[in-house]
Specification:
The structure holds two protein chains of two kinds. Chain A is about 30% helix and about 30% strand. By secondary structure, chain A is of the alpha+beta class. Classes of the chains: A alpha+beta, B alpha+beta.
Chain lengths: ~240, ~230
């Protein structure tokens, strides 16, 4: 992929025709896997991520914690998720993202209900077009709720970036690769808490504050979609 | 309808008092739901909340059915459909305090793969659930079959005021014991009836959200009985 000359045209539209504060079309589905206790498939545009949750279950001695459940998160990109085949062995980046995502989910899962157990979360990127970690967090949050694991709130993630000196929401691959900044955020609006925050690039103080506001607005919307998805999947149970 | 039902998802506000602490938590002086579930608001002002998914968490005094998976020096380990493995001691199983009264090879009497109906004698955050069979009707299951379903489907299998379980009992003429951990003990006159009963239970588990399920299952059992000639 070559670097585009301009990211935003004269009409203020981005490369894929979106406005700067517009997210890609979002699709969410829960209960897509029958063998897992909970599962979700989330798409932001072309980025497609599957999450599966197992547990809580008896944990191995080595990772068991005496006062709470331990979370194990595996973020992985499928070999077919990228333009060129990705080596399926976990890379440095994937190991790091697994840790970062685990820490973004730990504040919302009520782990102290299940001491000495473990909860496994698998986040599998099926198709990557930028923002896989944020989509992964959204999918994991849905899958956890679907598995009936006690949670304080739902989280969702979105990335804010900067291209041509304009702040944009929900970056795709090109904007991520050649943009001036990339700031993924995962937050729980119900708790008013940001659980993952990273910044790659440079933002001024003012831009930073604007970016957080933009992100929280989008995350609020995403969490509402999550709730709607969960409700719809159990609609029949509610109407009975 | 005298009741309104609504699905609540984690983080949503809930009002009412008599709801198990396990499903709600306090956040800045308001109660919020932690597990996806259905809230029933009855006209009389009663509120009930039933989770749609989740695991069985042992509670002292619960009567459960466990599957023997292995044994230690003086105890068995049982799978009770929960994150925690249950322990049944040899002494308790034989009901004797002195070790010289125990049989030489106690593990011959309760082997791996067999089911036990037991009561949870003790369980807390630091220890795995301890079982006891020293009560009426408890002990090794020698007759019939055990079917395992998801623990959250148990209320559906029992039905409103026991309507579903009564229907199962009357149409199959089997004996059912439904344990809270999702294990169901079925005892019938013959194997064919046992198969029908276990299929019916599985059907309820898979289609628990369907309305008019009791009638559907009843029809299924009657047809199966006709086909199998029992």
């Amino acid at each position: 992929m070559a670097r585009p000359q301009r990211f935003i045209d004269d009409e203020g539209k981005r490369l894929d025709g979106r406005k700067p504060d517009e997210i890609r079309p979002v699709k969410m589905q829960v209960g897509v896997l029958s063998n897992a206790d909970g599962s979700a498939l989330v798409e932001y545009g072309l980025t497609k991520v599957l999450a599966a949750v197992y547990g809580p279950k008896e944990s191995q001695k080595s990772i068991s914690l005496p006062d709470r459940a331990s979370l194990r998160v595996r973020y992985h990109m499928a070999p077919f998720s990228t333009e060129e085949r990705k080596n399926p062995a976990p890379s440095r980046r994937e190991v790091e993202l697994s840790k970062v995502l685990r820490e973004s989910l730990e504040p919302i899962v009520i782990t102290d209900y299940f001491p000495r157990t473990s909860i496994d979360i698998f986040i599998e990127v099926l198709q990557s077009d930028g923002g896989t970690r944020t989509v992964g967090a959204t999918a994991a949050s849905l899958a956890l709720a679907d598995a009936g694991i006690p949670m304080k709130a739902l989280v969702a993630g979105v990335a804010i970036g900067k291209v041509d000196n304009v702040l944009i929401v929900d970056l795709n691959e090109v904007e991520d690769m050649y943009g001036d900044a990339d700031m993924p955020i995962v937050a729980a609006p119900d708790l008013g808490q940001i659980t993952l925050y990273q910044l790659n690039g440079v933002l001024s103080k003012e831009e930073f504050h604007n970016a957080i506001d933009m992100a929280m607005k989008v995350i609020n919307k995403l969490v509402d979609i999550e709730k709607e998805t969960l409700r719809n999947s159990y609609k029949e149970a509610g109407e009975e | 309808m005298s009741t309104t039902r609504r699905v609540l998802v984690p983080g949503e506000k809930i009002e009412g008092v008599n709801i198990s602490d396990f499903y709600v938590y306090d956040y800045k002086n308001e109660k919020r739901v932690s597990i996806i579930g259905v809230i029933d608001l009855k006209q009389e002002g009663q509120i009930s909340y039933s989770p749609l998914n989740g695991v069985y968490l042992p509670k002292e005094g619960d009567i459960i059915i466990g599957l023997v998976t292995s044994h230690g020096v003086a105890n068995w380990f049982l799978d009770i459909n929960s994150p925690y493995q249950a322990i049944l001691s040899v002494q308790d199983f034989f009901g004797s305090k002195q070790s010289n009264q125990l049989p030489e090879d106690p593990f011959k009497y309760l082997q791996i793969g067999e089911y036990v109906k037991a009561k949870i004698a003790a369980f807390d955050r630091i220890r795995n659930p301890l079982l006891t069979v020293q009560d009426k009707g408890l002990g090794k299951i020698v007759e019939g079959i055990v079917v395992s379903v998801h623990p959250t489907r148990i209320p559906r299998i029992i039905g409103k005021k026991g309507s579903m379980i009564e229907m199962l009992k009357s149409t199959t003429s089997c004996e059912f014991f439904v344990a809270v951990n999702g294990m169901i003990h079925i005892k019938c006159q013959n194997e064919q009836l046992e198969n029908i009963a276990s299929n019916a239970v599985k059907m309820i588990e898979l289609q628990s959200h369907i309305t008019g399920l009791t009638e559907k299952v009843k029809k299924f059992i009657e047809e199966e009985r006709k086909v199998r000639g029992v």
